Amino acid sequence: MFNIGAGEFITLAVLALVLIGPDKLPEFATQAAKFLQKVRNLANNATAELRENLGPGFEDLQPSDLHPKKFIAKHLDTLSGDSQIQEAKKIAESAKIDPDLL
To answer: Rounded CA gap, 14 and 21, in Å?
Structure first.
């Protein structure tokens, strides 16, 4: 998730031990875990609310799907007819800038 190796983790643990102190470290770890749980719940609730507000057809929506390129590609894949796909390709081709005009 964070791409932290063993050496980096040990360095962070020693740094936390020095900065926070061994007597307050368990309390700090508990508070940090509670904070992370609240942030995770907030993100899950926001995603669920977004799915609910978008309506049917978005039940499998992931936050990463909201990137504009992925969103458009996903919906172009779901077009039902070849004529619609050809029309979308024509629009995409006509939107390109001719290098000779630059």
So the answer is: 10
Mark whether 54 and 71 lie in a shared domain. Answer: no
Same structural domain, 26 and 71 = no
pLDDT for 38 equals 96
CB 19 within 8 A of CB 28: no
In a shared domain, residues 54 and 18: yes
CA-to-CA distance for 32 and 30, rounded, in angstroms?
Answer: 5
Question: What's the pLDDT score for residue 82?
Answer: 63
Instruction: State which residues form the domain around 8.
Output: 1-58
Give the CA-trace dihedral at 16, 11, 18, 1, to 10 degrees.
0
